[in-house]
Each structure stands twice: as structure tokens, then as C-alpha cells.
Amino acid sequence: MPEAVPACAPNAAAAPLPRAAAGEHAHELASGLRCRIGQGTPDWPAAHAETLQFALWLRGHGLVHDGARALRIPPHHCLGWRGRGAPPAVQASTCALHVTLRIARAALQALAGADSEAWLDQPGVAPPLRVAAASSRCLHSAHELVTLLRDGGASRLLLDAKCLELLAHLLAMRSDARALPLSPAQRAALAHARERLFDNLADPPTPAELARGCGLNPHRFKQAFRSVYGQSIHAACQAERMRVAWQLIASGETDVGSAGHQVGYANLSHFSVAFQRHFGLRPSELKRCAAQAP
After folding, report:
1. Are 163 and 112 found together in one domain?
2. Where on the phi/psi map is residue 230: left (φ > 0), alpha (ψ -120 to 50), or beta?
3. Per residue in 241-253, pLDDT tens?
């Protein structure tokens, strides 16, 4: 089972942005594509027709429940849901920040054509609910859209273009994941290598060392790792460092400097910069946020 949502007070009913500010923080295209900045729990209304909805997490954590499954949503990951009726239940830390996109199936097919097929036309292959790591292009596009929506004054044409750009990157995120043919033994070896990588974040093994343990050459190992886990070895290690650091600071029992040292940073300034780049807030801000949580 995934972990509980880290501090900043897990809150399934966290308030979205004030309605008075909705015009400044949401944009809808003539095609029906709706883009919105959200805080806390994503504001996903029920869908009357089959709809594709994305929530790209820029800051904070979440949990999404789908029947017997509970999937963790780390920062810089995207939650995608395809279906109709009530969307899956989501919990989020109150400091969570995300960009949500919503579009009906028919509108998406008309807008994106073949680019929509990976999400819409593979029943049994493309699951209706998925959490995946976002690409750097996807994150860059999302941050630009957030800036435009928050600052106001951008032309409708520019907002349309940025919403469509983000949608294109989100759709490509799925079609870019080409699975390599791996045996069950190789997948088990990859899982063991990932555990070894995360067991010593302060001094992790090199990719060459991990590859030898899997019986693969380094190039094949890197390809297999990305295929199975959706990100490079370095990105996975860095994300785990930040996740552990978040938990240590949010617990209230570890100061910022100690948390940085435990995940491999000898320089507190470098740690603070990396943490802010990853989560969108400084570790000292998380420390204050955690101290205020009930």
C-alpha cells in the first residue's frame, strides 16, 4: 500500500482557489478543453460523457483511490483519468499545487486525432486511471501556463496556445513509453536494483554497478530502467532523495540541514535549491507548514 499523504495536513476536502478568482485561474477553449490551477484536492466535476482529465502535480502530494487500489501521486507526476460519471476519489496535502485539464472524448478526438489514440482507443491496455512521471517539457509548459493564468493580462490566443501545448505534452507522455521485452527474472532484478539505489541515497551505487547485478550491459540497463519506471536512474534517485527529505522535514523531528545530509547533500544551500526546484517551495517553508498542521 502507498504511504499516507505527507504533511501540510492531508485533507480530502481542501478548498480550491476562491471562486472570486476563478476567472484569473482558469481558461476554457472553444473546443471545450478546460485548464485550471488548483490547490489542495483537484476540482473534478462528474463527467456526463466519456472524458479525459489530467491533474499535473507541481507541488505537494496526493493519493488517488480506485476501488481496491490506492496510488500515490508525488510532485512532478501526472494523474490521468479516462471515463464518465464520478471521477476517482483523491486526497491531497493542503499545500498541493496542480494544473488540471479536462476535455470530452469526442472533442479530444476531433482536436488531437491519432495523438489521442494511446489514451482513448486501447481498452484493457491503457488503464482508465494512471499515475506517471511528467517529462521536463510537460513541467516547463505547465509552469508557463500557471504564470500566465496567475498574472492575468495574457491574450486569449496565447492562453489557448499554452493550454494546447500542455495537452500535447501530456498525450505524448503516454505514447513515448515504449516497453522493452523483459523476462520476469529481469524485472525482478530491476526491482532489486532500484531497492539498492534507494537504500543508500547519500552514496548510491553507480549505474554500472547496478547493471552488473542485473546481468545487463549499462546501456541496456538504463533503457530497461526507464521503460519500467518511466524515468532515468538519476531522476529516480533524485526524486527519492526529495521524497525522503520531504518526509523527514514534514515529520517535525528533523531540521532542514540534517534532512539534507541524510539524503546526500553536504551543502545546505545546494539542498535548498534542489528542494525548491523539485517541490516549488523551500524546505524552511515546508518546516513552517508542517509545524502549523494539526
Report:
1. yes
2. left
3. 988 998 899 888 8
